[in-house]
Specification:
By secondary structure, this protein is of the alpha+beta class. It contains five helices and 14 strands. 25% of the residues lie in helices and 34% in strands. The chain has a seven-stranded mixed sheet with strand order 1-2-5-9-8-7-6, sandwiched between helices. A five-stranded antiparallel sheet has the order 13-12-11-10-14, with no helix packed on it. A two-stranded antiparallel sheet has the order 3-4. The termini are far apart. Bound molecules: biotin (BTN).
């Protein structure tokens, strides 16, 4: 499985497939610390049994049904203060792929859930190793539900549940990697405004009044955007408030 290099410039030219592992992000971080790695190397498994998600959550994926992989990047051109752009490019690449494949509207639920018809098809976990004022290594971990039909979580879905078709995993991986490379190169070319505008145009609930929760309680707010550090900007009672990942949940 996953022996053929992707038809790209550098993302997915080197593929490391392990039949099973705890977490491809952990493995990729370990590999990046233990030697020279080529930018774009992909670590992928068929059975990830301790997948990690945002906010200390776990990522569940039925063995052999979906894609669970991590891409090793070395974005020396990016300031640590702009690291949220890595989440933006990864989210946009997954949206590009899903839009092409399904023809349906795709939404990005902040910070990094990719939704089709309100179902979460994919999740992203970016982990960066910083050194001084630069990003030494970034590991972009992607869980993408492809052929799984049944989920314990009623808010989860897959490419199969939204299109009623099954997909070849290796070809699906190659397509996603192609979209990721295009978006990553846009970032490398410093297209910050274009990327941010496109990310915002897909942001779930942008401009709509909805309820949100913080440890202090629930309230009505309107999402107005995301700042460069990745904080969610919500209008509450006429003033703008900024929330980090662990500071707010969608009620
Ligand atoms: C989330 O939705 O909270 C993010 C989920 C990220 C899951 C992927 S699967 C591949 C990579 N390895 C991990 O341990 N996590 C990411």
């Amino acid at each position: 499985m996953y022996k053929i290099p992707a038809n790209t410039l550098f993302i997915g030219k080197q593929l490391v497939f392990v039949p099973e592992c705890h977490s491809t992000n952990s493995l990729a971080l370990q590999m990046s610390q233990s030697g020279t790695i080529a930018e774009g190397m992909v670590v992928i498994t068929d059975n990830q049994f301790a997948g990690r998600g945002q906010r200390g959550n776990t990522w569940e994926s039925a063995a052999g049904m979906n894609l669970t992989f991590s891409v090793i990047l070395t974005p020396a051109f990016l300031k640590p203060t702009d690291q949220y752009y890595l989440t933006m490019v990864t989210s946009l690449a997954l949206c590009d792929f899903l839009t092409t494949k399904t023809g349906y509207p795709v939404a990005i639920k902040w910070p990094n859930d990719i939704l089709v018809h309100e179902k979460k098809i994919s999740g992203i976990l970016i982990e960066n190793q910083l050194q001084g004022n630069r990003i030494l290594v970034a590991v972009a971990g992607i869980g993408f539900n492809v052929n799984q039909e049944y989920f314990q979580n009623t808010r989860a879905g897959s490419l199969r549940t939204v299109t009623d078709k099954t997909y070849e995993l290796e070809a699906t991986l190659h397509e996603i990697l192609g979209f990721l490379e295009v978006r990553y190169l846009q970032l490398k070319q410093q297209k910050f405004n274009t990327l941010k505008d496109e990310y915002l145009s897909k942001l779930y609930r942008l401009g709509e009044p909805h309820r949100y929760s913080t440890p202090e309680g629930t309230f009505e707010g309107i999402i107005r955007g995301v700042d460069d550090t990745g904080k969610l900007c919500v209008e509450v009672d006429g003033s703008l408030k900024y929330f980090g990942i662990k500071e707010i949940t969608f009620a």
